[in-house]
Amino acid sequence: MMKTLKDLINKEEFGWGLVKSWMKDSKNNFEILPKNPKRADEELLRLQISTKSPVGAIVFETGGILIDHGWLRILGSGSNKLNRGIMEWNKGKTYSNEGEKGGFLLIADDVIGGYFAINAGELGEDIGQIYYFAPHTSSWESLSCGYSDFINWSLNGDLDLFYQAYKWESWKDDMANVNGSDVYSDWSAEGRTRHQSNNRKWVSTEERVKLALQAV
Q1: DSSP state letter for 152
Q2: Which of 1, 53, 56, 212 has fewest C-beta within 10 Å?
Q3: How many Å apart are CA 95 and CA 78, to the nearest integer?
């Protein structure tokens, strides 16, 4: 039986307070995107996860969160800068029909075509753990952490170390013009050198995510 909004919204044990505590002294740049209340209600109903959980709270309270000047995008209920609600984005990719539960759930991505997902059994035996689709290897890798630790890491972890082989000299300036639904068209093992030029091309993440889905 589908839970109602009354069932899903829990003000006494609210995961958003935990997320805000990680944001309070965040080491990494972040931007909370405004939510559309109607869209947030719809996405929470489709997600069917209580706001006691950080994932439910982020979907209900935000249109998404841009991390590190927009390099990393955490999916919420959708906003102008990140016009992809989490369940809207997953439909047709990790599940087909409303009410279904897929083998994983896409929860974030980055500008180089990397995708983060909660494993529900299809990516490995460690259910509930976050996996990363690495564009340079075209494979899914376990990050050995859950959603809460992933969000805390996004805000306070060493993202420069994680992405040290992929950031180019002018990346921060380039992020100012990036749409939250675009990724670089051709990231490869050639790494940063190729992307130092002004010939970088963007494609829709809708197109690039096919590589991640094919690798499952």
Answers
A1: H
A2: 1
A3: 18
